[in-house]
Specification:
With 287 residues, the protein is of the alpha/beta class. It has 13 helices and eight strands.
């Protein structure tokens, strides 16, 4: 089969553990696309696809769910980040749950991270092909939710959550030549995003970044347009969409390991159900 096989991972904070359940099953069945594009949690957990580390996302999230070094109000008050930047992105992968840097760097899969530039309000797409401090900062920036995170400075950019500017980057990936895409969404069929109720708080906190505030203010319109784009691409056979059967039972933030495991297992179940369809769609033949 010609063309490039892509995997598009929407964000959704802790809903990303559902996605990790799906992607772990895909790895267990030896499904390797040519490229992966991840937004927010889709990037932060999706990097484990390139490093071929099945189970890593659920493992460290449950291990550190109640650890104040990893996340919580104390971290927010002392560092400005609810999810502790240094511990989560620069200690855990090197000391507690080792990130397989060698496999990540040797795997030809092209891994793209989506961030939002707070000065322009536009998406920034970054291909991460090696691991060092700055590259892990790109990963952190993509998953840095407004109000729960400080603006991340990396390589001349001021960045926050990729989902603000490009929540479901199928259109971008198609422009890059990926013409057979599996799209993993974290909201059920029929979901429509509403206008952000926290805009008054956002305006206070981010008043220095008017273009970013405009993107936040219009995010629901962009998101709902993208859902329509995905649905149309699916109708035309350009993508295969995998989504939860119903609303994923977890909030943006969770400190409950049992709840995390439950969400992850729900994702695994859906992954198992879709395996044959994914293989057929990608043109993978059983040996």
């Amino acid at each position: 089969m010609t063309g490039k096989k892509g995997l598009v991972l929407e964000g959704g904070a802790m809903r990303g553990l559902w996605t990790a359940g799906v992607t772990d099953v895909m790895m267990e069945h030896d499904i390797w696309p040519d490229g992966l594009i991840g937004v927010s949690a889709g990037a932060a957990f999706g990097c484990n696809y390139k490093s071929k580390q099945i189970g890593r996302a659920i493992r460290y999230n449950t291990r550190f769910a109640k650890d104040p070094r990893y996340s919580g109000v104390r971290s927010l008050l002392t560092t400005g980040d609810y999810f502790n930047a240094k511990f989560g992105y620069h200690v855990v992968p090197y000391e507690y749950d080792l990130f397989d840097i060698k496999t990540f760097e040797e795997n030809p899969l092209e891994f793209t991270i989506v961030c939002t530039d707070v000065q322009t309000g536009q998406p920034v797409y970054h291909v991460m092909d090696h691991v060092d401090y700055d590259e892990l900062e790109w990963l952190r920036a993509s998953a840095s939710m407004p109000l729960a995170s400080k603006v991340v400075k990396v390589q001349g950019h001021l960045l926050l959550d990729g989902g603000v500017a490009d929540s479901i980057p199928l259109e971008y990936f198609e422009r890059k030549g990926y013409d057979r895409n599996v799209v993993i969404l974290t909201q059920p069929q029929g979901y429509q995003k509403a206008h952000n109720r926290l805009m008054p708080l956002m305006r206070l906190a981010l008043h220095r970044y008017p273009h970013f505030l405009k993107a936040l203010d219009e995010r629901h319109q962009m998101y709902n347009y993208q859902l329509e784009y995905v649905a149309n691409a699916e109708r035309l056979g350009r993508c295969l969409v995998i989504r939860p059967d119903e609303k994923i039972p977890i909030g943006h933030i969770s400190h409950n390991p049992e709840q995390m495991h439950h969400v992850y297992e729900l994702g695994r179940k859906v992954g198992e159900r879709y395996i044959d369809r994914i293989q057929a769609f990608y043109g993978i033949h059983h040996s």
